[in-house]
Design a protein that fits this description.
- The chain is of the alpha+beta class.
- It has two domains: 3-116, Ribosomal Protein L22, Chain A; 117-150.
- Helices cover 52% and strands 26% of the residues.
- It is built from five helices and five strands, in the order βαααββββαα.
- It has helices spanning 14-24, 29-37, 42-61, 109-115, 119-149, and strands spanning 3-10, 68-77, 81-86, 92-97, 100-108.
- The strands form two sheets. The protein has a three-stranded antiparallel beta sheet with strand order 1-5-2. A two-stranded antiparallel sheet has the order 3-4.
- Helix 2 runs antiparallel to helix 3.
- It starts with a strand and ends with a helix.
Length: 150
């Protein structure tokens, strides 16, 4: 994580914010800003402002805008404001006004490439694990067969 920005108690339901955050996760900063400017959701304006804040935080630390991408972006539940509304027969219905805590984390592209191992090594590791599991299963079967014979 290079830079981070949080917006807390944003007066939008987190479910609606997650629709936008899922679309920009993993994209470069330029792509995400272009995408957010063309998105017609209210959450896009808040995330755009938050993303620009995270970029400014990265510039304060001395990183350039071109190498940055969004490593994490998520929306958590905030405080829910409870309100009531008059209903029929003198009753009251509850209205929940939800808030969200939105977090954006930026990282460099070079560090992201170093973290992911090559696909060949992943396939080899999976094959080795499968072979070990097969050997254990065969050993268990042989042990059960020996017990049955005795």
């Amino acid at each position: 994580m290079i830079a981070k920005a949080k917006a807390r108690f944003v007066r939008i339901a987190p479910r609606k914010v997650r629709l936008v955050t899922s679309l920009i996760k993993g994209k470069s900063v330029q792509e995400a800003l272009a995408f957010l400017s063309g998105t017609h959701k209210r959450a896009a304006q808040v995330i755009d402002k938050l993303l620009r804040s995270a970029v400014a935080n990265a510039k304060q630390k001395g990183f350039e805008n071109e190498n940055l991408f969004i490593s994490k972006v998520y929306a958590d539940d905030g405080v829910t404001w409870k309100r009531s509304r008059a209903a029929s027969f003198g009753r009251a219905n509850r209205i929940n006004k939800r808030t969200a805590h939105i977090t954006v984390e930026l990282d460099r592209k070079e560090t992201a490439n170093k973290v992911t191992p090559p696909l060949k090594t992943l396939h080899k590791e999976k094959e080795v694990k499968k072979a070990v599991v097969k050997k254990k299963k065969v050993a268990v079967r042989k042990a059960k067969a020996d017990k049955v014979r005795r």
